[in-house]
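Exercise (ungraded).
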Amino acid sequence: MLSIKNLHVSIADKPILKGINLQINAGEIHAIMGPNGSGKSTLAHVLSGKSGYTVTEGSVTYNTKNLLAMEAEIRAREGVFLAFQYPVEIPGVSNIYLLKAALNSIRKYQGQPEVDAMDFLTLVKEKVRLLDMDEKFLYRAVNEGFSGGEKKRNEILQMAILEPKLCIMDETDSGLDIDALKVVAQGVNSLRSPERSFIMVTHYQRLLDYIKPDFVHVLANGQIVKSGGADLALELEEKGYGWLEEQAAA
Amino acid sequence: MSASAQQIKNRISQEYKQGFVTELEANTFPPGLDEAVIHKLSTIKNEPEFMLEYRLKAFRHWQTMKSPEWAFVKFDPIDYQAISYYSAPKRKEDGPKSLDEIDPQVLDAYKKLGIPLDEQERLAGVAVDAVFDSVSVATTFKGKLKEAGVIFCPISEALRDHPELVKQYLGSVVPPADNYFAALNSAVFTDGSFVYIPKGVRCPMELSTYFRINAAKTGQFERTLIIADEGSHVSYLEGCTAPMRDENQLHAAVVELIALKDATIKYSTVQNWYPGDKEGKGGIYNFVTKRADCRGENSKVSWTQVETGSAITWKYPSCILTGDNSTGEFYSVALTNNYQQADTGTKMIHIGKNTRSTIISKGISAGRAQNTYRGLVKVLKSAAYARNYTQCDSLLIGDRCGAHTFPYVEVKQPSAQVEHEATTSKISEDQLFFCRQRGLSAEDAVSMIVNGFCKAVFKELPMEFAVEAQALLGLSLEGSVG
């Protein structure tokens, strides 16, 4: 599904990612871990098409297409979804309005008919129940006055409705208490399918207690310094990142 | 410039859709203004004597006045002798009796604008007065309104058919000497709408006037007078467009509203005069005086405006809250782009007891535009327990535009409560990226964010207008996200 080859990325001439290689197949969950400043969020942003990053070398192929050549909205319509670390507020725009506009722009791109208001409402209400959210959520302005947990749950709601193929989750666990974390994890698990892949960027192991990854990669200083199975996360929890960084430097 | 900014620029650089010119034979005065021109105007309109006197008095006063300079707008002095003060499509004798007699090209022009004047094609429930340059060319649904006792006609016709009503109210809210442009208008106004809603009548349909400037080198000086008698209710809509021309054209209107006891007037404007091109060339100078007098107890006037056009807008729809328990409201969206300038806001003058006013103003600036909110809340000593709430928000798109706020508050009554809230924000790259990451194009994202920002005002617009206003806002954005 996704093939990252020798990816080098700079911000304002400062190299951040220095040759990332990663192969993600359909249905897999990959966790990207690493210390602060290792380039985790940069990777999430570059894959989802945020501006301000310069790819100096390498390629990213997504379902045989050149992902890096696509505008952000085209990537979204092709099924790439980023769950934001800091979801923004959009005053005056209701959640349900945004969701419907987003879904229809994706469906239109994919050659499907737009959903009408009634069908959409049925769909949304079903997902809202699934995520144990209050329906009132839908009519509030996007993220305005939401608590940290509500914002993250809202991201998962969007994911559930847009049904992306590749979900990139940027520190979705940050700022969540344990109950909210469980709800979010439950939502993600309900979306797991053989056609859908996940990249979970996280600093801590605790999210991985609830969402079990197939692979764990450790990013340090812009490179993947170690890859392994779910056990690697536990090892990191115990030993920290220091030993890997030293290894990489040696 | 980032990719998203470029896309926005492309999409919002759409042409002004209403910029066409209708070629037709017109009766146009040669440029210039003196007493002879005013005599000629009054004669052509077959006005009663008092009107000529009114005009001449206003003209004489205007000559002693100076163009105001306090507004936060810049423009070269206007040569008032280079403007023609009357232009009307040529027509048979006394004016058209029915649509068949109107120049088909004029009908066609309105059709192109989406305002068919044929009653069959009109949405039921909206009566239209169409003002083309200096004259009203058609008023629809007159018969149906007459059944309800509502008078809705061109003001030139009202001067002939209901001179006593016009005489009683004209200039009673905006006196001829009120300000420079009001004085000019009082001297040379040509047409506009007149509305009278009798006691206890709820106007059976929305009334609307559609103003169109067509002829070159002319000014449009329209005059609107709306009187809501005791216990009546009316909702009035106004729309404006003009062709694209390289020179600036002056539109100096006066609108007076009078609400008597227990009456309600809702006045909505979607102003889309030609704003000039991307370099700031051409466009309409929209120098307008709009004022309402809530004369009776429990009366209410609500102004809602969506201002997206004009090179320069200078306009403060105001309410004089004379009657006890009267209410004044002002809901405004003003969008400026490229080199447009807007200095707009409202005045709420509290005179009666327990008077209330609400001001919600949303200013949006893009390109190199300057957008100013200027508002006055004045509570006189007589206005015990008066209350005002003002919310004034500015949204900036890009980094070369400006937003300015000048709120004036004068309170002479200790029991009054006056609140003012103001915010200034920018459409952030983060908001844009978030929307695009959800599959929306950059241009749809900007439209959505701007519409969200204006929501509190749009919900005050009549349904039909709200949709138009939202679409217009999307089209009028021409700038870039920095």
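Further reading is listed at the end of the chapter. For now, observe: Confidence is low (pLDDT under 50) at residues 1-13, 120-124, 478-482 of chain B. Chain B has one domain: 3-472.
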